[in-house]
């Protein structure tokens, strides 16, 4: 069997379905292929389930702090893990089924379920069906890396996917990797009642951030009873009866940790090795990431790659923006470029970290002469009123041309407040324009103009 289409989209993550919608609205006949779960990483194993768990963990944390607000709660706070996971599953299922129903009911879109493999530059096989199209779009996402550490295959380990199926609270969760995914799960399960230890090979957590951000995050997590082992070398695993021994040759502390569960959170890799990309002439790098240009075109002019598999963002919002760039260029006659995108993201511990643009360290490394404004959250009225004063706000500007280079808001509402800075950066406005904004009181965002009145000297 065979089928001829104007476009083939491989993967129903964040970019693929929206592109199908735009292409079919433009009158094109589209085939969309999904081999497993509609919605991709975000809906099934990423943002949607983890942020649902974050919400449950926050509820438990706030309940324990009820007395701080003059509220009495009788009895101990308990966690019904089956109910927590059922709530998470219901939120995920609603999102996934809604997307699947939309796609299968979309006029001019034919959905195929199964593994896609390139046969030639214009042909893709799904089961016994061979499809062909003038343009092909790849949106296959990524998955957790299982590192080749000594003994890793001798013990049972978890990834960000399999940990979502736990129906109980681990006695002691050991997390290998002190970056974004690992830190979120660390706080979630600590608030659910597990003992948690983070093991990180680097000398500090989330090492891409400035040192002051890393140190503040470490303080926040340790204050909740999370143990953190840094400078861990020769990480290894060994079965110890019902437990797992995790060897960590750190600069201090015991050389081995005994955990009931181990979560591997040391990075991700694209799902590209089984697509038959060589048959289409699509080039990948050593990690399997599809090589694309500034308009997301691969080494084959009519094949494009979107989302995690192209190495240009690895976030839901950057994947969606990949769709926007491709649609604008192909359908609207525009010339949008990935390089014009200002990077922004968040770390969803509590309080969250909102980040945009360059860190102070990155700005200096890029040759900028900078001025920096900082304010602790203890001096933010909104934070004091909510009883959540951990963290700080920080903004970095160019001392010569007054451009806003980047910002970090580690504190209550930081993931939302950061957008005021991101919007000004997208508008290419110099910082004095934001300085004279009149934001609403009482909010976290109202302190951003104040930060700009307290910029340090140029250096």
Give the topology.
Layout: E1 2-10, H1 16-25, E2 30-34, H2 40-44, H3 47-64, H4 81-104, E3 109-113, E4 116-120, E5 123-126, E6 129-138, E7 142-144, E8 172-176, H5 180-191, E9 195-199, H6 211-223, E10 227-229, E11 233-240, E12 243-249, E13 256-259, E14 261-264, E15 268-270, H7 277-280, E16 303-305, H8 316-331, E17 344-347, E18 353-357, H9 360-365, E19 370-376, H10 381-386, E20 392-398, E21 404-410, H11 414-426, H12 431-435, H13 447-453
Parallel strand pairs: 1-2, 1-6, 2-3, 6-16, 8-9, 8-14, 9-10
Antiparallel strand pairs: 4-5, 5-6, 7-15, 11-12, 12-13, 17-18, 18-21, 19-20, 20-21
Helix pairs in contact: 1-8, 3-4, 3-5
What does this protein structure show overall?
With 459 residues, the protein is of the alpha/beta class. It has 3 domains: 2-143 and 269-340, FAD/NAD(P)-binding domain; 162-266, FAD/NAD(P)-binding domain (3-Layer(bba) Sandwich); 345-453, Enolase-like, domain 1, CATH 3.30.390.30. It contains 13 helices and 21 strands. Strands 1, 2, 3, 4, 5, 6 and 16 form a 7-stranded mixed sheet that branches. The chain has a 5-stranded antiparallel sheet with strand order 17-18-21-20-19, with helices on both faces. The N and C termini lie far apart (67 Å). The model has no long low-confidence stretch (mean pLDDT 96).
List keywords for this structure.
459 residues, Enolase-like, domain 1, 7-stranded mixed beta sheet, FAD/NAD(P)-binding domain, 30% helix, 5-stranded antiparallel beta sheet, alpha/beta, 21 strands, 13 helices, 3 domains
């Amino acid at each position: 069997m065979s089928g001829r289409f104007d476009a083939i989209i491989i993967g129903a993550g964040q970019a693929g379905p929206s592109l199908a919608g735009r292409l079919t609205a433009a009158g094109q006949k589209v085939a969309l292929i999904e081999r497993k779960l509609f919605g991709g990483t975000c809906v099934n194993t990423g943002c949607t389930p983890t942020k649902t768990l974050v919400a449950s963990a926050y509820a438990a944390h706030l309940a324990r702090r009820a007395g701080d607000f003059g509220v009495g709660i009788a009895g101990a706070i308990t966690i019904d893990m089956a109910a927590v996971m059922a709530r998470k599953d219901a939120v995920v299922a609603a999102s996934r089924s809604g997307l699947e129903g939309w796609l299968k009911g979309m006029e001019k879109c034919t959905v195929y379920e199964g593994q896609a493999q390139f046969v030639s530059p214009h042909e893709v096989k799904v089961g016994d069906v061979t499809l062909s199209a003038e343009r092909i779009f790849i949106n296959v996402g990524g998955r957790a890396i299982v590192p080749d550490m000594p003994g890793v295959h001798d013990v049972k380990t978890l990834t960000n996917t399999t940990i979502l199926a736990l129906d109980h609270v681990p006695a002691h969760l050991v997390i290998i990797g002190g970056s974004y995914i690992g830190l979120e799960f660390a706080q979630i399960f600590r608030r659910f009642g597990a003992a948690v230890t983070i093991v990180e090979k680097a000398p500090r957590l989330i090492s891409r951030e400035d040192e002051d951000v890393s140190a503040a995050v470490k303080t926040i997590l340790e204050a909740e009873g999370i143990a953190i082992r840094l400078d861990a070398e020769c990480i290894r695993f060994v079965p110890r009866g019902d437990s797992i021994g995790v060897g960590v040759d750190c600069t201090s502390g015991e050389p081995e940790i005994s955990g009931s569960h181990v979560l591997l959170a040391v990075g991700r890799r694209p799902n590209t090795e089984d697509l038959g990309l060589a048959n289409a002439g699509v080039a990948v790098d050593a990690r399997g990431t599809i090589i694309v240009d500034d308009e997301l075109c691969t080494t084959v002019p009519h094949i494009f790659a979107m989302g995690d598999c192209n190495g240009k963002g690895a976030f839901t919002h950057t994947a969606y923006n990949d769709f926007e760039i491709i649609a604008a260029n192909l359908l609207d006659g525009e010339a949008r470029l990935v390089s014009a995108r200002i990077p922004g993201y968040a770390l969803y511990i509590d309080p969250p970290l909102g980040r945009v643009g360059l860190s102070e360290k990155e700005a200096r490394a890029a040759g900028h002469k900078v001025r920096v404004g900082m304010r602790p959250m203890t001096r933010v009225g909104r934070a004091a009123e909510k009883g959540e004063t951990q963290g700080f706000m920080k903004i970095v500007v160019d001392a010569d041309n007054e451009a806003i280079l980047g910002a970090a808001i580690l504190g209550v509402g930081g993931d939302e407040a950061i957008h005021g800075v991101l919007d000004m950066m997208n508008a290419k406005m110099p910082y004095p324009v934001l300085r004279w904004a009149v934001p609403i009181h009482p909010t976290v965002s109202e302190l951003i103009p104040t930060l700009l009145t307290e910029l340090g000297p140029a250096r």
